[in-house]
């Protein structure tokens, strides 16, 4: 169960995950899961070879970087945005670029998977930013691209993205975005 807990905590990202959610996902009782979380927390805290720690804030559990490693993590985020955008981050960026502004939940629904980690990466690299809040219950954050996004891809405006038809699928959206990236890369050579 430890591996499954770790995977779920990692996947939950900055949103964290509640004990209730863990019990539903793992089909185990809360007491057994809480015990496993406590053991994981102690193991991570006392192992100097591990860079992560488990934290409970409110009713949510978070897998976080240990504070002693903040300097090395800050160096990573201080680098240029070009450093290793994952496929997931590129997918999220394409969705935001073409359909902005939209919420994390809307992005998750389009992708079919959780996108908090990719959103955090893109926001930390200033490729996306908050664009206000959606006027629905819970008032979720809306995301949009930034001027750094335009600079990063050599665009002067979003109108330079390849046009999409009304019947464009999510796969077509990602393909069009990747084509735009390849075109920009070859034009820069």
TrEMBL record:
Q: What compartments host this protein?
A: Cytoplasm
- Biological process annotations from GO: cell division; chromosome separation; DNA replication
SUPFAM superfamilies recorded: Winged helix' DNA-binding domain
State the coiled-coil residue ranges. none
GO cellular component labels: cytoplasm
Q: What is its main location?
A: cytoplasm
| InterPro entries attached to this UniProt entry | ScpB_csome_segregation, WH-like_DNA-bd_sf, WH_DNA-bd_sf
Q: Which UniProt keywords apply?
A: Cell cycle, Cell division, Chromosome partition, Cytoplasm
Top-rank taxon, per record: Bacteria
Say if the entry is tagged with keyword Flavoprotein.
no
Give the family per the record: Belongs to the ScpB family.
- NCBIfam families recorded: SMC-Scp complex subunit ScpB
Subunit composition and interactions: Homodimer. Homodimerization may be required to stabilize the binding of ScpA to the Smc head domains. Component of a cohesin-like complex composed of ScpA, ScpB and the Smc homodimer, in which ScpA and ScpB bind to the head domain of Smc. The presence of the three proteins is required for the association of the complex with DNA.
Q: What does this protein do?
A: Participates in chromosomal partition during cell division. May act via the formation of a condensin-like complex containing Smc and ScpA that pull DNA away from mid-cell into both cell halves.
What is the name listed in the Swiss-Prot or TrEMBL entry for this protein? Segregation and condensation protein B
Source organism: Lacticaseibacillus brantae DSM 23927
């Amino acid at each position: 169960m430890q591996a499954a807990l770790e995977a779920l905590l990692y996947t939950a990202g900055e949103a964290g995950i509640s004990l209730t959610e863990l019990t539903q996902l793992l089909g185990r009782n809360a007491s057994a899961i809480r015990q496993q979380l406590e053991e994981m927390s102690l193991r991570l805290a006392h192992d100097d070879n591990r860079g992560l720690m488990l934290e409970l804030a409110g009713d949510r559990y978070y897998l976080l970087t240990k504070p002693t490693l903040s300097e090395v993590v800050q160096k990573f985020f201080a680098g240029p945005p070009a450093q290793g955008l994952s496929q997931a981050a590129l997918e999220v960026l394409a969705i935001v670029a073409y359909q902005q502004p939209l919420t994390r939940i809307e992005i998750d629904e389009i992708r079919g998977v959780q996108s908090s980690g990719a959103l955090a990466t893109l926001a930390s690299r200033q490729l996306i930013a908050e664009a206000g809040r959606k006027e629905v219950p819970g008032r979720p954050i809306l995301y949009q691209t930034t001027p750094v996004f335009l600079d990063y891809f050599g665009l002067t405006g979003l109108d330079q993205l390849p046009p999409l038809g009304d019947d464009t699928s999510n796969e077509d959206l990602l393909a069009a975005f990747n084509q735009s990236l390849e075109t920009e890369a070859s034009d820069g050579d």
